[in-house]
Amino acid sequence: MPPIRLILGLDPGLRHTGWGIVKQNGNHLAYIAAGRISPDPDLPMASRLLELATDLAAIVAQHHPDESAIEETFINKNAASALKLGQARGAAMLALAQAGLTVTEYSANRIKQSLTGYGHADKTQIQAMIGLLLPGSGKLAADAADALAVAVTHAHHSGGVSAAISAKTRKAI
Q1: Of the candidates 163, 167, 139, which has an alpha carbon nearest to the alpha carbon of residue 153?
Q2: What is the pLDDT of residue 171?
Q3: Measured over all CA atoms, what is the biggest interatomic distance in the chain, rounded to whole angstroms?
Q4: Which residue out of 55, 67, 143, 146 is catalytically annotated?
Q5: Secondary element (H or E) of residue 99
Q6: Structurally, how many domains does the chain consist of?
Q7: Owning domain of residue 147
Q8: Phi, psi of 131 (to 5 degrees)
Q9: Given the residues 11, 55, 67, 146, the one annotated as active site
Q10: Quick one: residue 159, left, alpha or beta (phi over 0 = left, psi -120 to 50 = alpha)?
Q11: Is 98 helix (H, G, I), strand (E, B) or coil?
């Protein structure tokens, strides 16, 4: 039987970085915790990135995940926004690597496809699917639900959980 593992998923952003932790026990996934990190927008960039990394390190220290996964940067028409997102991702990935975690990256389309069967699903569809897959997760901010979606995707694609969510479950959305 595959070992029980905790997976930390991240939906990075400079304004809000969503995080979510699921426990994988064979083919079963369970909600552990989720939230978002929201650095003070009035702080200088370096201070915001430090706050993001420091808060992530605290989450890792509290929950002791075994692995982590993060959403890849999407191509943005606004170069300044893409650069800021890249800086937030870099700070997050560094914090996770410093904690000794593997960091696997997944595209937004792959995450959406894994959860809903449709690579262009909207945030409400992702939130609904997370509610079905992870009972007890409650009403979540979109960033936190997206982070849990990243963790679920990692569980599906890294072994241990059935390779795909059943079409029957997807139709429930």
Answers
A1: 163
A2: 46
A3: 49
A4: 143
A5: none
A6: 1
A7: 5-171
A8: -60, -35
A9: 11
A10: left
A11: helix
Cα 109 to Cα 168: distance, rounded to the nearest angstrom: 21
What six digits make up the tokens of 44?
């200088």
Task: Report the alpha-carbon angle 4-10-148, nearest 5.
Answer: 60
Question: Tell me: the pLDDT tens digits for 70-122?
Answer: 999 776 678 888 888 899 999 999 999 999 999 999 999 999 999 888 778 88
Provide the whole-model pTM.
Answer: 0.89
SS3 24: strand
B/e letters for 52-65, b = 16+ CB within 10 Å, e = fewer, are bbebbeebbeeeeb
Give the contacts of 40 (CB within 8 A, at least 6 positions apart): 47, 48, 51
- What CATH number has the domain bearing residue 110? 3.30.420.10
Work out the angle between the directed axes of helices 142-157 and 123-133 (0-180°, nearest 10).
Answer: 60
Q: Which residue in the list 40, 42, 66, 71 is annotated as catalytic?
A: 71
Q: Which tokens go with 94?
A: 């560094």
Active site residue 51: no
Residue 23: name the closest of 125, 136, 171 by CA.
136
67 part of the active site: no
With tokens 């999407």, the residue in question is: 74
Residue with tokens 């992530």: 56
Is-catalytic flag, 11?
yes
Question: Is 3 in contact with 132 (CB distance < 8 Å)?
Answer: no
